[in-house]
Input
Amino acid sequence: MASVEVPSEKSYGIAVVLSAVFGVLGIQHFYLGRWIEATIDLGLAIATLVLFAVGEPLLAFATAAIDAIHTFIVTIMLLTGSFRDGKGRLVCYPGQKLNKGDSR
Output
């Protein structure tokens, strides 16, 4: 039996702005209910600062690069309407049409 996919109740605009502005801190993941990803992003940001503080700039740049690349990918996925919230629902851009069928 086919079911219709239900869009996320989270705001597309807020999610995109949070990702673009505060993405390396994982704030957009906290907003969308993706707690594990949020904690990892925040941990990478803190690790970057700590590594700079203890005099390990190469490791700090590496962790910052990983976090920045991840944030860029998430922002693109949000902009294209292909990112899901913590409940597995698509964060839809205005006017996005959802596919009918099994959402798995």
